[in-house]
Amino acid sequence: MPDGFCLTTAAYRSGAIPERDVLAAYEHLGGGPVAVRSSATAEDLPGASFAGQQDTVLDVEGEDALLGAIRQCWSSLDSERAVAYRAGQGVETGDLAMAVIVQRMITPSAAGVMFTANPLTGTRTETVIDAVPGLGTGVVDGTMDTDHYVVPGYGRLPGDQGHGCLSPDQLRELQQTGQRVQRALGGPQDIEFAYDAEGTLWLLQSRAITTLFPLPPGTDPVQGEPRVYMEIGHMQGLRRPVTPMGVSVLRKTTRRWLQIIDVDDAVVDAFLLDIGGRLFIDLTGFVRSPRLHSHVPEMVQVYGPAVAQGMRRVLDDPRYAPRPAGAGPRAFSTGAIARLLLATVPASLFGALRALAWPAAARERAFHELEQVHSQTWTEPANTASRIRFAAGLQDATMTGPMMRSLPPLWAALIAQGVAGWLLDGVLQRGELNATLRGMPHNVTTQMDLKLWSVAETARPHRELLISTTPDELAARYARGELPEFGLTAFLEEYGHRGNAEIDVGSPRWAEDPTPVFAALTGYLQVNDPGQAPPARFARAAVEAEAALAQLIERAMRTRPVRARLAGSLMRRARELAGLRELPKFLWLTPLAQVRRQLLTAGAELTERGLLDQAADIMFLTLDEALDAAHGADLRPVVTGRRREHHREARRRQVPGLLLSDGTNPMALPDDTAAEYGPDVLVGQPAATGVATGPVRIVHHPSEARLRPGDILVAPTTDPGWTPLFLTLGGLITETGSPIAHGPTVAREYGIPAVICVPEATTRLTEGQMVTIDGATGLIQMHDTEPLPKPGPPLTGHV
User: Fold this and answer.
1) What is d(CA 387, CA 365) in angstroms, rounded to the nearest whole number?
2) Residue 772 in contact with residue 712, Cβ under 8 Å?
3) What predicted TM-score, i.e. pTM, was given to this entire model?
4) How far apart (Å, rounded) are the C-alpha atoms in residues 771 and 595?
5) Per the CB 3.0–4.6 Å rule, which of 168, 515, 588, 633 could disulfide with 703?
6) What percent of the chain is predicted at pLDDT more than 90?
7) Sheet holding 56-60, edge to edge
8) CA distance 389 to 383
């Protein structure tokens, strides 16, 4: 790097430039032109690079100019852009300070920026370089067209890299130098560089690339076996990172369940991974299989068209070509798969056929299983260690018994829908089958949301209080017993074990923090049109679905009378059974809530012993680590590090649906099919039919929602913890999901148009922007109008 000196943060904190020392250092440097660079204490953090947020001043020459440039760097710490960036990154601002680096100015023949990993695709084995002749400011500030190079591997240059202002030898030198810097600093780097007239390479500064999604644990992106992973947590509303305890409990449950078919724990751990706090499964065995290789995109289609398209790109990569049977690693042996099928398929098929024949009896059996789980009692463990062991096994009986027995009606509904669709092939129009699934009865989540509406109706005498106070303040007042009683206590006694990201035991339940419930109530209390009241909307959706079914069958009877009658019978059976879609998970949440209660109690006991700082810290340990703590291990430093990592990952807005072991996100390139619709149209996957126009409301967590009737909710993902917000919506857009996931299922039942799997919807759409969504085609039309203002404090007058 060029010679120079550093003015430390001590000078900034004292508020005065030590002019004599600075000018002496400048003279010792030889005077002449220098570069003056900012280096704030909040810069180059693991989760926030601050690239370009503070000032750099080039070609500074002379004493007065140098002192002025230092003051400019200091001032840039509080510039509008730096303040906004810190706020967006959640960076603490209590003790900020600025150091300043002064470097001898290099007169470059070429300069630019090098990334030692591809910042767009995440590929760790590619070096990306942008360069221009002369000074590199045009690259940094984006004002010049650059020579762009993507260098694969280590030193292997494709034939078209010999162009522009850098030679192949210089590209090779840059890549090798970048790898040395990366190894020294412990991660991929964003490096500014310059070549002088003599061809000498100078590194001007380096910072971490903070936007890369973490690599799968234990992988070597260069020498390791290429593998492909798919993110699955979003199917259960897990878009934010799962707590370490949440992952541990889910993995323990999976291990116990698969022990039935003699699958080793090591196989489960290799198949179900925690990457960046998100849940991924390893699909390499399926991709490698000669029999399944070409069918994998179809298999993952339920996770969205972008995932399927990304998988097609993976199959085009020769590294993922199929191998002969027995070659390479496998997730599960053939014997294990056979045992799994024998253990589940016959009973499931028999139960599904019985449910199709006698749907009322099937519903009765399913709700009986729920009552059995709700009536379970437990004996309190004697000590902390036994409490943790007890918590680890609490779900086992429910998961392998009542939950499995409650699934056949769901299988029956899916079979009925699938066969009906096949019978009506050529007759069905786009979105028509989904239209018959609106307003379905017997859904425990729908019943929950309608009960919350009843609470809102009872609360109307207190409307002014509830809509003029923020949800978090209402939750605090409720905890202090300062709110009037209007039925919320009874609601939370029945449904308080629910919440956002509820399959993560580390996530708070409504009984602990009812802020999301108050956010939903605020929206309900702004509905004054009886025709838009949720019970009326739900009933209307059911009538419209029955009418759509009758019209479809009537049309099919003209050309295919036998098929039409059979399809009609199957679709009516589906309507009787599909509402049970939510029951298995609802049933599971009862023991899961007990797991959380036991772990928090154990955390409180460990806190009393001085082994944790607070009870909730136990959620940042695994089950085995919690047992170690119960036996006296002080794991507080582990908790501190994991909390910091969890909070950093919680700020990540985009999570890859597919991930390769070299860090590549195969879905990073835009969907080519979207181009045909033009720049004002976003394309997603149809999930609930209907058309709606309304203002966009972007919400990342249910407790943050400030919704008004008719709004279009745009969210990263949803789960049942979000559904109370659905009752007054105009429509739903999510970045992830599946048509059979909880959110779209409930949206259909309410008659709310829904489009899912819209990449980067929360960033490509803006708050208040008017859009029209079509839940049958998956198209979102962005209107050329000024965005409406974001809702401020809730209205206190009539709407």
Assistant:
1) 32
2) no
3) 0.81
4) 43
5) 515
6) 54
7) 4-7, 98-104, 34-40, 56-60
8) 10
